[in-house]
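Continuing from the previous page of notes. For each protein in this section, the sequence appears first, followed by its structure tokens. Read the first protein now.
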Amino acid sequence: MRLVFAGTPAAAVPTLRRLAGEHEIVAVVTRPDAPLGRKRILTPSPVAQEAEALGIPVIKAARLDEEATGRITALRPELGVIVAYGGLVREPLLSAPEHGWINLHFSLLPAWRGAAPVQRALIAGDAELGATVFQLVPALDAGDVHGMRVYPVAEDATADDALASLAVDGAQLTAEAVAAIADGTARPVPQQGDATHAAKLGLDDGRLDWTASADAVFARYRGVTSEPGAHTAIDGAALKVRELARAEDADPLPPGVLRGIKGGVLVGTGTVPLLLVRVQPAGKPAMAAADWFRGLRVADGATVRLDAAASSSERNEAR
């Protein structure tokens, strides 16, 4: 089958690689090169790099506008496949391929329709994640389902961990859907259940509120790692939380209060303490939390406290 594939991040690469081995991919559509790293070097997307390695023509487009639509349509694809491209497919491109477009979405639709399904599911404390392949329609992530797979998530898995696993499972799921469409056996079914929305994450979503329960703080850390990143502050100075873990048999601490122990630094929450493992102070590289804490030169008996997250009203006033 002649396919056009649209995707951008690393999570889309396993599906591209799998489909390239089974079908003719006439073009790969991806977002333009983006500045990365401290030197802000323009870098092709992971999907662009994989497509070039596979020898597949690449169309770089920030959005699927009239020009991109014309270039794709001219290739006469029979089916479009999209995995985390980062833009919407609208008419007339939506109907241009004979079989339309299918989308691999990393949630158990209709739960978590939108840009950040894995992240929002983890923040909400969902015990199961999943992947769904569905027929693309004008409404957001609302089309009929070609296939779905449940992924039981490990209790300490971050969004990065979960996406890496879902990307592999999703490649298999997508390949099965494409094969069924190709041989005429596909029978997509309507989505069942209540829809929830997974809005794109912003920097403020990564702020850790130490007055919340340990479960809630840890769930937020997992959902925002590595993007946009978990963070807090101490005496007004930003502190990125690179690695956070559950603490075992730790005595209670007031929210935000720190206590150094072997292997890390305990931090109090609204319930039980958590363990800071790695942190990154502003303007410095990431380091072991224990080393950072020793550098604070805390006097015996003194208490060190992280800044609690501002309330919504305080943040609004600050704006």
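Done with the first. The second protein uses the same format. Note its length before scrolling.
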Amino acid sequence: MVGTGSASAAAGPTLAMVAREAGVSVPTASKVVNGRKDVAPETRRRVTEALNRLGYVRRSRFEAAGPPRLVDLVLESLDGPGSGPVLRGVAEAAHEAGLEVVVSAVPDGTASGRAEHAWLDRAAARGSCGVLFHLPGLSPSQHSWLTRRRLPYVLIDPAHQPPPGVVSVGAADGQGAVTATEHLLALGHERIAVLAGRPGTVHGDARVAGYRSALAAAGVRQHAEYVRHAGPDGTGARLCTLELLDLPEPPTAVFACSDRMALGIHEALAERGLRAPDDLSVVGFGDLPEARWAVPALTTVHRPLAEMATTALRLLVRLTRGERLAGTRTELPTRLVPRTSTATRPGPGR
């Protein structure tokens, strides 16, 4: 479960009781609770065991008097394609809540060992009320660390399924894929291929499932050779597109499960002296800025990343106040953005 602050200091064991149980002073127990490093390992062990035995629940710093009121936002990369919208959404919600945000990116080399907790230790040491993560996922060890510290956290658009009880905010990717495929069907396309990322991610699996669902609902035959998997960038998509074009019965449209894949399709078409939408209609997913700048401009599915981040911050505030949430997964709707990379199905002979 996600750790939350108690609604009242009287609702459970006090810090003084923990200190007495561990045989230390209240300030020393407070240092352990708040993740301070200036505590001897043996003392930290005794206090931690006392915390667990007594079931102490850390009081939320949102309930504590006086500034600073901090939350941490941890990104996979400061210059990633989704970082800008996430930063904007968190900043807007934090301003509304009167909070300060500390932004950091996960450094290289933190996948295992002691280093994977170093940035979490720093968040606890500076007194953060909670943490927002915009990462593909956290390791089991990191989830365990957060739970033991009773530090509230929310995942923004995780690529991997989080453990039960962990709060996350994402998009309705499956429905977005249905909308994208229905758009192509409405233009008269029936030979529709899909380019997806590697199987096993929340996003990719939902989008392929939505594609299949839309074809099945329309009574359109699904071709096994039209389902291709590639890496997240345009290189693999380019190669898959060339393979699709070489089929005896090539598709007339392709649904790409990311905008970067869709741009890789554009590259493959240019390599063959072809272009969208005259020779192949193309739909992307994500609505990155590059989608508007592409030639032709890319029809795509908009994912509300900024709104996801805003929602995540608001949920985090509720967690720190000890509120119970109706569910752990929140999905925001997607929408189709029609542009010029899709058109009616080419006539016979194409």
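What the second structure shows: The CA atoms of residues 10 and 59 lie 10 Å apart. The first helix runs from residue 15 to 22. We return to this in next week's lecture.
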